[in-house]
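Input.
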Amino acid sequence: MYSQDNLANLKKMDALAPELMKTFWAFDRAAVAPGAIPVKYKELIAIEVALTTQCPYCIEIHSGNARRAGATDAEITEAGLVAASLRAGAAITHTTHALINQTEAAQSAA
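Output.
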């Protein structure tokens, strides 16, 4: 299902919705361009987001971009662990919703 060959369809999308795709590509480039946050750190953030959203295309693309920007395997690993921590933390904090008892749930609904 997740073949890098699928990315060839991006050119088809460019043709089918040229103005929207042109806007998307400009935004995409601007988001990872040098700014207040250096490119290496932006790419590490992108890896974290890609791991959280579980997008194999983004994981591959941004891992390569991060390495080209100077990120080490240790930095990429730590970025992955930050993503794992946030996913685990979300599960922990969302568990609090599962602990609302019936009385509290009824009062909240009223």
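The two ends are 46 Å apart (CA to CA).
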